[in-house]
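Working notes for the structural subgroup meeting. M.R. asked for a predicted model of this chain before we commit to crystallization trials. I am recording the input and output together here so anyone reviewing the notebook later can reproduce the run.

Input as submitted:
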Amino acid sequence: MTLRFKKISGLLIIIALGRAVFAQDVSVNSVFDTSSIYLGDQVYYKIIVDQPSGIKLDIPYFRDTLCRNIEILAGPQSDTAEIGEGRIQIVEKYLVTSFDSGHYRINPVFAERKDESGIKRFYSGYAYLNVRRVEITPPDTVSKIFDIIGPYKAPLTFDEIFPWLLAGLILAGVSWLIIRMVKRLRGRKPAVELPVIKDPPHVIAFRELEKLREEKLWQKGETKKYYSRLTEILRKYIEDRFGVDSLEMTTSETLDALVKSGFKKDETYNKLKSVLNGADLVKFAKYRPEPTENESVFELSWDFVNNTKQEVPAGPVQVGENVKQDKA
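Returned structure, recorded in token form:
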């Protein structure tokens, strides 16, 4: 009887030691790619399981959220890799985002094994994520925003006016001669249309920004429309000025494309980034900006265009409708 008891006790000890060794051979971790993001940014949440290759573990999956205010956009994406010595690593990834600032703690997750002896679970630790608000107003911006002061205009003198008067008379005489020649040749040869010379991108952008200011959209409660129009003006300017197809890109794609085109990450770049990110919050995250923020994004947009405009050499510029000129 004593010998039989010793055999049973020894067998139980071996089984217990085997389970303990097995438990030590399985590790579960849960982490984010980065510990801090801004509102609306996207980040990967990973569940990493290191285990012997000869066993099967079940990993429960999340559906819509990791926790309150952290939404799942895609996943899980599962990937298995051999890490040597008869072991494998399983990684399950979720693409997540959040539109509410705060410090979030994600509860431990587990992988479980089911066999005849029951269910054994292996838990990870907590995962942490800090979600920050976007600061729309730069730190050095004063609390009160003033209107832009126009340049000082000195009184004109006769010496300054006379060349323009003379040029006007000459232009009128040349125009009269051209009109007479066109009338004579119109019936004999077809006319050729000369292309219209477009205004420079910054001139168009300034004109549209002035129109937007006069519409007073956010003062009427149409804040979302105000930010949509503002970003549309900026994206059209970026497309015409830098050749970046910004109207078809997201904010992050636009900023990356600008940097690849040679644009420096300086104060002007930060102003554009602040405006585009702030507009995304208003349009997609239902963020309600203060009146001072609405005025600030306008001034930042104006500064961005003014700091990046391409200077055009002085000279006669043809604007308006197409001008028809007969072939010689």
